[in-house]
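ABC transporter ATP-binding protein, Lactobacillus jensenii. Tokens?
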Amino acid sequence: MSLFQILFRHLKKYLKDVCGAMVTMTLSALAVLYQPRLLEAIQKDLLKENTSKVVSDSIWIIGLGIIAIVAGILNVYFAAKLAQGVTSDLREEVYEKIQSFSYANIDTFSTGSLTTRLISDMNQIMNLVMSIFMQLVRLPIILVGSFILAILTIPRFWWITLWVLVILTVVGLFIMKLANQQFEQYQVRLDKVANLAQENLLGMRVVKSFNQEGEQVNKFSAASDDLNRLNLNIGYLMSAVIPAFSIIAYIAICAVTTMIGLQIKLHPTDIAVISPYVNYILTLLFAVWIIGIALMNVSRGKVSLGRIKEVLDTKPSIVFNDKAPDEVLSGDVEFNDVSFTYPGSTKPTLQHISFNVHAGEIVGIVGATGSGKSTLAQLIARLYDPSSGTIKIGGRNLKEISEKSLRKSVAFVLQKAILFSGTIASNLRQGKVDASKAELERASIISQSFEFVRNYQDGFNHEVQERSANFSGGQKQRLSIARGIISNSPILILDDSTSALDAESEKKVQDALEHKLKETTTFLIAEKIISIKNANRILVLDDGKLVAQGTHEELLKTSDIYQEILKTQQAREMRGEH
Ligand SMILES: Nc1ncnc2c1ncn2[C@@H]1O[C@H](COP(=O)(O)OP(=O)(O)OP(=O)(O)O)[C@@H](O)[C@H]1O
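Tokens:
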């Protein structure tokens, strides 16, 4: 798919508006070009004292003026409608594509870059579409028309008109080259300011608690000043264009009028062509200038289209078997010699992991920070595919099952609790769309969130604000667990999801999971051994390797690493550290 195909595929829907834009562009261009001809005719008639012709031509001039204005307004209407429509359709297409991305795809682009592509690049594309439908037909007509008509107005000075066009084009191209370099820089500096603002606002609490406001303001000011300086330079450059162009045009106009003046006795009617000639030269100047701007928009838009194409051309690195039935699988989980390396990384994060878990087991996963616990959990939910080895759930290879089947069978509660703006109920129902009130209550009782939900006057209809700012860390974790539980999946993964809970609440959640979700295979990832002590089986990870597995008691006897982790944690506990 070529760059512009990406855009024009979306135009099919708006054929009427495309026609409207084309017709109004042509009309307004012709009206602009014909007015000086009428002016010339009026002046010639005045010289011949043909008053009735003067009146009818004047009415024509006013008529043409009205046509130009109406066509111009309608053209902006059609172009804006097309620009908004096409960009919004393209944005939705890109957004849908991103939804199909695996974690690995998102890692490759980075979320920041995907956000910029959806917002800033789309704005550039909108400008491009607007430019196309305001100028594509209009400018060539005006440029060629004003050039030919300027020559026809006073044919013996054709060479001056040609020189004007050549010099304007050369100066225009030179300025465009300078401006393009500045615009590229502008995008880079704008990204920097946006990233700093985003980082700072998201981490506002940290900034405030470490008294870093001054430091952050300085960093932001430096980046903003940088952007401002460049903006000023672009402004200076742009403000020099019109005077530079005008000088060229006025030199030509002076040359022509002087030469006409010198030969006025020979050609007395030439007095009538001065004003239309000036008009055509100024129109030519205007056309070259707008073509320059339009070309800049095209080159900026092309960069953005390229960035969008990159997203659209990316194949999701995880492809599901859509032909497989959408069934809920059993809770057995099997890892067979699984190794995994993150995209772009050289060191494997998991190496030769094999284990076999039966439905209904509670499995604890422990290990030092960075040992690969979350990565292992993410492989079960097929957020990444293993680099080698196979993973089966319910006896079926993950690569052979459909996405719906996988999502119905595995519920994943992430390490970082994320709620979406809406209500508590709408968040919990992301786990099960048609969950009844009783199901909401059951899930929130198990996750120990019912206590505080019950205290809200509007209960489950209580509002979740943007970035869930009206909930504490512990509340968010409890609601995230409830969302995982409500789906009733045979496999539930809690990735360090109780870290913000006090010891008593954590114990209550675990007891509830053990007694109320007996059929569910539950993976509990925890930093502290005490949190998973009662698991039916504990997997011990060390630097990406599964170094031991068994119950707490078994591991105390058989695994040195497990004993070491426990001792370190107990010592820390004694020192009162967390
Ligand atoms: N998206 C990623 N891209 C590249 N490397 C990653 C990515 N996510 C994690 N890693 C690396 O993989 C290793 C294992 O990370 P993982 O999050 O699985 O560890 P963990 O045992 O869960 O740690 P913690 O207890 O601190 O959460 C770490 O060295 C980490 O830097």
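The radius of gyration is 35 Å.
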